[in-house]
Fold each of these.
Amino acid sequence: MLLRHTPAEVAERKALTINPAKTCQPIGAMYASFGIHGCLPHSHGSQGCCAYHRSTLTRHYKEPVMASTSSFTEGASVFGGQSNLIAALNTIFTVYNPDVVAVHTTCLSETIGDDVTQIKKKAFDDGKIPEGKRIVNVSTPSYVGSHVTGFAGMCAAIAKEFCVPTEEKTDQINLIPGWVEPADMRELKRLMKEMNVPMVMYPDTSGVLDTPMTGEHDMFPKGGTTIEQLETTGSSFHTFALGKFGSEDAAREIQRIAKTPFDVMDLPIGIRATDRFLMKVSEITGMPVPDSITDERGRAVDLIADMQQYFSGKKVALFGDPDQLFALTEFLLDIDMKPVHIVSGTPGKYFSQKMSEIIDDEVPTANYRNGSRADTFLLHQWIKNEPVDLLIGNSYGKYIARDEDIPFVRMGFPIVDRIGHQYFPTVGYSGAIRIAENILNALMDRQDRDAPEERFELVM
Amino acid sequence: MSSLIKEREHQVFTKGRDDYKISAEKVSAAGSVSQRACVFCGSRVVLYPIADALHLVHGPIGCAAYTWDIRGALSSGPELHRKSFSTDLREEDVIFGGEKKLYRSLKRLIPKYNPNAVFVYSTCIVGIIGDDVEAVCSKVAAEEGISVIPVHSEGFKGTKKDGYRAACKALMRLIKTGSTIPRNKGSKPVINILGEFNLAGESWIIKKYYKKMGIEVGAILTGDGRVEQIRQAANAELNIVQCSGSLKYLAKDMKEEWGIPFKQVSFFGIEDTASALYTVAESFPDNPEIMEKTKSLVQSELSKAYPILENYRKDLTGKKAAVYVGGAFKAFSMLRSLKFLGVSVVLMGSQTGSAEEYEEMKEMADPGTVIVDDSNPSELSAFIQQLGVDLFVGGVKERPMAFKLGIAFCDHNHERKIALAGFEGMLNFAKEIHNSLTSRVWQTIDEARESDPWKI
Ligand code: SF4
Ligand code: SF4
């Protein structure tokens, strides 16, 4: 009983986070950086942060995760990190030779007040950066926001660096997929292709963090959005940003630079969110949704109809990142389940506003909270007060699942105790099928496990 | 791509070709993809297994989130160490200081969890904003009547090794709160085991051996650790230190303070384990019975292990390995174990070895072996290909890289799930590398490499 200390009564905590439901900004920035082809993420700070971020991404993706660090020492923390960063860039371009270096800061470099934009300018002015090489930078102090904020910040920084405005717009759209898995990005590309919509999507980690086995280790794998593609974002006629928390900043940045209008959509997780996304794309681009996709939708709905009797009225607790939670909560309601506890460590007032729209009418008693005291400890307390039939969240949910003996479906970041999750999309209709299947399997495995002999049946 | 960073010239050495002292304990070149971590990481690794202590990370959320239960340091009782507590410093704390928040957190946590001691880890920004962690800790300690020990582990103040040192200082403070008990004549000799973290239950294996020898293990620092046992650590007659990097500082301090001698040992591999047991037996010459028991223990274990290992050796002979681990001392044991199994080590290195350790490594290595300090993935993968390595022994960040190169892997780091210490551990080790080396998947890759199946 690892969590036996968790008391049921919920007291207000002012100063403390226990078992966080979030991590820090830089890891999000690092993840977004991998969505650019030939990009080396760089952590401007001391070594530890970078090592932790790399290890966490490695545990989640089971892929080599390359990132460099400014390796701050006591000197740097007193005199500033300028010389470290300039030396680092020099090493990076002579040894690793990426096309792009994506610099994010850490709490340390932020607290001592390093101005990376300034340092970067100096490096260019002094001729320290080889011809044609690009540097993206974003400020990611972890004492503000969460890993999602860092992701959003890097996406906006990429726009700032690469977006070239044009008067004439093409028939291409920009798609900012939000913090989703490589398989999701692959799926979004497939859907757009199926609809014949020309687009540029970034970041795109497919082919970077799910590379095929070749017997070679490529520091810069084939995938990722290329610089050329990124430069065309300013000539696209429209931007779709999936997920307000993860993608809106980037869409705004593109609008600021190139006057490109944008729509912020929910992540297309579940049937209705996918419907809205595809219909909006269709409306804006004039491209019809092809029969092949309509059939996919039909299959997903058919499957849910078959499953619905088992889902009905089951209570669910879920935690993770806001954009995922919005869409997932809606989907759970749509499959007749009852989300009762929802927690996200990512701060932002919009969370409760949006969540209230989604859930208040449907489940008036639902608990939801985000921000710094919204951790898995609180979620556990809520569950103790109102037990649930299912828990959905990242690997850290397993403690609660075991302690309370609740079926558990892994979704979100990080998943460090299972392999293969990044190969299967959760977006689109095929994603909905997968989520529904995972949920039902978890419920039925439990039913089989608990069934007394006479109720243990072949056909369920 | 030139895979060698210029500043690293003297951190890479080929035996038989180069002739210089390997420079060690250098700060990593800025911009390198170093595999190293920070001071905080070092401290956290050492103190984490103390299961009935409360570990509070004073800093922004990330530092705590990334160290939440990532290590398999097992406990036979309380599991408070596996929870993740953070003061989650926010912007206003960075501006106005985090002392109040730290105080409030401690005041809330201590009554609730009733820990036997508290460790408060300082992370980078605490070092910058200048919180007086020491003062807050002693205030709370006085009010609550328990040890609240600050760990000065600001990430940027050195390398992981400095983190070990900070942890040792914290442990020393804890030990000093204990009492020395006069020993009865004729009672069993007591030893402490330092630098053993009970990964995958390894402490239990080792403890069992000493018990069979008639030795009492007083405290294990810090595997399956308990505050009270650590407090009594000064009552032992001998400290044995495993994993040179981390707890040697404490052993030295304890020698100075209480005159407790220490011996450096390793429990990885047949030979090293046997000599670790004999070393202790030899330290108690007045008690010949211990030596007798040790001999029969080693003999019986060896007679069980040999035939099994012999079998593995048949498949493993002629394979080439790379060993890249945290501390250099462990690399020595690995080298001996691998040699024993017929595997030659052609590339070896560590994140934090010292210059002397590298000299020793040079001695032990076969000609042609490449030795690296604080290496990085592109350097490692270049050498792996160049030297034709079949097996990589390393940690979490190296595993996918090894697999991408189509070679076998064995986790010999803090996250390992299989006990590798002692005689049993050697069998597990042999089994694991055997399974990985003989997996069919490598053949599948080779076939694809040789003949592209889609090209007819
Ligand atoms: S210091 Fe900041 S950036 Fe580094 S790990 Fe801690 S929270 Fe993350
Ligand atoms: S902030 Fe400092 S202490 Fe925390 S992980 Fe980064 S380097 Fe380590």
Amino acid sequence: MTASEAELIGGRSTTEHPVPAHIADYQVQRALGYGNSGRVYLARPPRRLGLAEEFVAVKLFNGPCADSAYERGVEELRAVSALDSPYLAKVYEAGLAGDSFFYAMHYVVLGSLSAPGRPLSQTEVLLAVSHAASAAHALHEAGIAHAAIKPSNVLIGARSAALSDLGLGRSLRPGLTMTGVATSGTVEYVDPSVLRGDSPSRSSEVWALGATLHRAVAGVGLYGELSDSEPLVAIRGVMSANPTLARNLPQDITAIVQACLDSPDRRIPTAGELALRITDLAQVREGIVSGG
Amino acid sequence: MSRAGGEGTAPGSRPRVAATTVPAFDQMTVTVRPGSDVVARMPGVLLVARSADTHEGDRSLRAVLNLLEASREGGIRAPGYRLSRALRRLIEDGAAPSDLALVAATDDGLTVVLAGAGALAVSERGWRLTCESAMVLVREVDWPPAPLLLNLGQPGCEIGEGMPDSRLARSFDLRAGVVPGSGAILASPPPPHITTPTGTVALDSDRLPAPSRDGGSLSASPFPPRRFDRIHGIGPTGRRRPALPRGVAGLESAEAVSRARVRGYRCRDGHLNDPRTLFCAICGIRMAESTGVFVEGPRPPLGLLVFDNGASFSLDENYLLGREPDVDERVRAGQLRPLVLFDTSGVISRRHAEIRLEDWDVLLVDCGSANGTLVAEREATVWSALVPGQPIRMLPSMQVRIGERSFVFESLHGAP
Ligand SMILES: Nc1ncnc2c1ncn2[C@@H]1O[C@H](COP(=O)(O)OP(=O)(O)OP(=O)(O)O)[C@@H](O)[C@H]1O
Ligand SMILES: [Mg+2]
Ligand SMILES: [Zn+2]
């Protein structure tokens, strides 16, 4: 692993996980990053898939996966794939490698909103979050909750952004509230009501999208920087504090974020409406730019 | 449970090299390859470590030898799990020699620890294990079917290489101690000495470490292909689900209907609360005494289990925790939620502990696990082991340790 890759994944050592040469019959090139539930590798897909792409991103989940959980995962991925939204990351296949669950998805060169391969303009960020919101809406209309919306799951494609890693956590491990806070500060994107035991809902996903927008534009989280190494401290911090919006957040974006975090009865009701509000805003801004 | 029985029920397990076909670790012979590094053997363990002629090097070597010494004094015959855990910590703290290779006996196989240039090879089978770019590699493996070489990554590590005449070599055997060397070979004793092992392994399948994933071959991929399912272009088998309801009503709101019912007081906003609490667990407002009506309703989630790695589980159902909770009838029947725990130490039982919700209480029971369940009160550092089968009531912020994993009970409704 090169030094720059080490930085990309947060400067943390991945000593526990040497990069495997193969995952099933995929040829691993290098690690792309890691999260709480697993790791993502750049890999050459096997010929049998008949893909035009030279590379795919393979997400390999930590720990063994029972057959029953595997089947639930496959069913969930297929249900998402059937929606055929341009804003949902394309998953080619899932499998068991040894007893580890993995899936192969479309590889995007720029990576995710959490650490994009090049600096993004504010408009690009706005569009990316609105695409993620559209994707979330498509899921909700189909009776599916993502449950893990956060910057690292918003992939920056050439033409549009795509929401990835549908929170399989819950189908793989029932009862799971969130996969963890240890790396990407997942807890700041979880609606506090979900921490208190509510199931993910349209409302909680709007919350997560607002938190994602805030982090991507302001560069800080709603609770400042939460402890990476002490999950319990982070969770207690979130449950006892109110989110505070960063002062460097432009006013028009502040208004949207606020409307995402508001009490559920006043919150933007659906991710679809949020997507519209964000694209409107982006267009207004572009208009100002081209008009001036 | 017999080993055969264990295999039958464990999904995805494979035939193992039965531990009874190889002699116990301490009946194996150890031949030392000449060199200026260090080879050490103690009951159940063999080590090759870099000796550096510096103060630092000397100290780190001592640290590792002390670990071995401590386990020898403890009279532990299968120190693999303990040693590998302690050694990994030492390596991660930078307090161990830069390069080392260790194998130690576990209940039914070997645990391998490699750091730096440390390498393990079974030349007869073409197997080789190194830690590549990692700082440390810890692995459970089966007993090797042929002589096993540990060294510090010298090129051309053929087992025969650099060895004295083979007839002579047969009589070399380091039984215990610390000597100079560049590598060591662990092998079955020559034929006349093969003895049937004496009471080596407990056949309780619960004690088996998670099967190593590589089918016994040390060099094979840790992630061999097993199953593929196309996703793109294939629809789900289930029926189309109804759209999520608008607002806060969640995915599983229907589930609330099937939740156990409890009795308690409602706050001004209608949240059902534990009668023992003074403030509403959801909105924090003081419970008005005047409300004073005891009502019944679906039990709200009682809190979270927050794991060491941040994974959090909602306490709205009973859970079975363990390495393979799916083996349990009640899990398969959907009465208990499985919570799979995995660690590398192999000391977690397939069914290890159970979390039971009773009224407003969260109970914890050890299911007769092989290595026990430890608890400590909030922020305390004194751990005590649960008596198997005897439930305890979890207090808010109670810490629980199972193998290398730990979690805290983050209470929402707990009585103060
Ligand atoms: N399809 C992809 N193409 C390119 N890079 C990707 C892709 N998927 C993930 N990555 C990169 O890998 C990183 C880690 O992703 P991963 O999904 O393991 O972690 P996460 O999203 O933080 O957590 P979670 O496990 O909850 O999804 C991402 O931040 C992103 O940079
Ligand atoms: Mg992800
Ligand atoms: Zn209340």
